[in-house]
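Archive maintenance. Older records in this collection stored only the sequence; we are now back-filling the structure field for every entry so that each record is complete. The fields below show one back-filled record exactly as it appears after the update. Entries are processed alphabetically, and PBS lyase HEAT domain protein repeat-containing protein is next in the queue.

ARCHIVE ENTRY
Title: PBS lyase HEAT domain protein repeat-containing protein
Organism field: Thermobrachium celere DSM 8682
Length field: 381
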Amino acid sequence: MELIVLYSILIFSIIIILLYFYLIAEKLYEGYKNRKKQKVYKEVSGYLDDIASRLDEYEVTHVQLKVLKSFMKDKIKREIVEERFLFYFENLKGSISDKLTKLAEDIGLVDYELEKLNSKDMHKVALSCKNLGEIRSKKALDKLLELIDIEVVEVKYNVLMALSKIGDEEAFVEAFKKLSKTIPLSERSLIEIADSFEGDKIYVYRNLMYLEDEFISSIFIKSAGNYKNILLADEIAIFLADENKEKKIAALKALGNMGDNRYVAQIIELLNDESWEVRAIASKVLGQLQDNRALIPLVKALSDREWYVRYNAANSLISIEGGIELVYDVLEGEDRFAKDIVVSVLETSYGWDKVLKYDMNNKRTPKLSEVIKKYIEEKDR
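Back-filled structure field:
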C-alpha cells in the first residue's frame, strides 16, 4: 500500500515538473515570437499601409503581389498581414473594400482562412468564420454553408454573420432555410444578423418572410420592420391576418417600428384577438403609431381581462394627443380595473408630467390631478 502511494506521488511530481517546463517553454516561445513580430512589424505593416492608401488610385503591381505572397509564407508576417487587413476592412469603406477583398484573395489570405475552417478547435473555426465575414470574399460561401449544421453557438453565429456581411442573397437565403426551430441562437442575435445583411434586403425579406417555419419567418418580418422600407409595408401587413400568433405579433412589431399608420384599423381589430399576447402588442403598437382613431378602442382595452393588455393600453392612451382628456371618463366609469391601471400609469414620473402639463394648458375643473388624488384617497380608505 505504501509503495502504491509512493509511486502515485512520484508520478504526480513528474507531471507537475513536466507541466512547469512546458509553461516555461511556452513563455519563452511567446517572448521570442513577440520580439520577432516587433522586429518585422514596421516592415510588413508599412508596406501594406502604403499599398492600401493608394488602392483607390493604382493597381497592385506584380512585384507587390510577390512580396505580399512571401509575407504569407512566414507565420509571424502572415499574422501581421491578417491583422492589418482586418483593420482596413473595419475602417475603410466604399469601393476600396472590394479592392481589398480582391487583394486578400490574390495573396492567399482567404485560402489561409478557409484552411483554418478544417480545425477541430471550434473556437478557431468560429474566429476564421468571423474573419472571412470581414474580408467579404464570395470564395468562402460554399465552405460557410457546409458549416451551417454545426450545433455550436459560436460557430453558428459567426457563419451566419459572415454570410450576412458577404451579402450574397442566394447563399444567405439557403442558410436560413437550412435552420430549424432548434437553432441555438436567440431571437435578438438572429435579428441582428438579418439587419446586418449587406446585399439586396428586399429580395431576402421576400424569400424568408413567407417561410412555413414560424420562428425564422417572424425573425425576418421583424427585421423588415427595422429596415423601414415602405415597399415592404403592404407585405408585412398581410401577416396581421395570419393564423399563426408569432407571425401576427412580428407584423405588429414591424409596423410599429416603421411608424406606418395606414394599417391602424387592422391593428385596432387585433385588440379583440383571442390571444392576449397579440392584444398586448396591438395595444402597445397603437401608442407608437400615435393615431387618434385608436383612442376609444384603447379606452375599451383598459377593461381587458389581462393585466399586460390593460397596462399597454393605458400607456398608449396617455401618449396619443387627446388621450389624457379621456382619463376623466375612465375615472367616472364603473370599471375598477380600468381606473386602477390608468392611475398607476399616471402616477409614474412620465404620466404625472402629462397630467400637470394638461392641467396647465386646460381650464377644465376639477383639475385632472385633483380627480386622480381624490380617487387614490378613496381607494385607500
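Update note: The radius of gyration is 31 Å. Residues 2-54 form the longest helix (53 residues).
Entry marked complete.
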